[in-house]
Amino acid sequence: MTGATRAEYCVIACAEAWRGDGEVLASPMGLIPSIGARLARLTFAPDLLLTDGEALLVRPDGTTEGWLPYRQHLALVTGGRRHVMMGASQIDRFGNQNISCIGDWERPRRQLLGVRGAPVNTLNNPTSYWIPRHSRRVFVERVDMVCGVGYDHAADARHHRIPRVVSDLGVFDFATADHSMRPASLHPGVTREQVREATGFELAVPDEVPPTREPTAEELRLIREVLDPAGTRTREVAS
């Protein structure tokens, strides 16, 4: 196998979000998170439940594995038995996420998706984020509207947890004293200075930031030959 591309490191970083979760519903939103969840199921997380996004449980190849009634889906969501990886139009140092609007809510400069299920997701089950373009437009000092709830707003939420934020530059978590964001690993070729420059708030950067782990030869084979032979992952992150 040839060396891994940046997109493949991102797949690995997304897959790792579900490591150790056990039998939970994995709900990836986005192409690379979806490949990552399926890769995790095929390798180190065989108990994951994968969904087609509606009413079916599926195998990594997309064939039907079971039926998920809506009432059971809600029970998983509100009981902490789901780990979703969402996108973010804005995210701040404490993990507050915005997918609703840019600018003042009463007169926004741009209308986005809307709040949707972000509050329920973030207060009731673990929520990670995937951001394919790490920039100051996304990583902001303060989000224009809180949709997904961050650590500074969710002190008493029973199942609130943000395991990781994955971007095209690295992996970030909130394992700091005040639950502010820090780099947990950087993808190959990315520097701490590059991450600081692309982030609109001061990151809690440790003295040593490890590299994102390399995919194994078997993981690369699964990504390239089984899960994404057409190479669609490069649509989100260029090689």
UniProtKB/TrEMBL annotation:
SMART domains: CoA_trans. Signal peptide: none annotated. It comes from the Bacteria. Pfam families: CoA_trans. Belongs to the 3-oxoacid CoA-transferase subunit B family. This is CoA-transferase. It comes from Streptomyces coeruleofuscus.
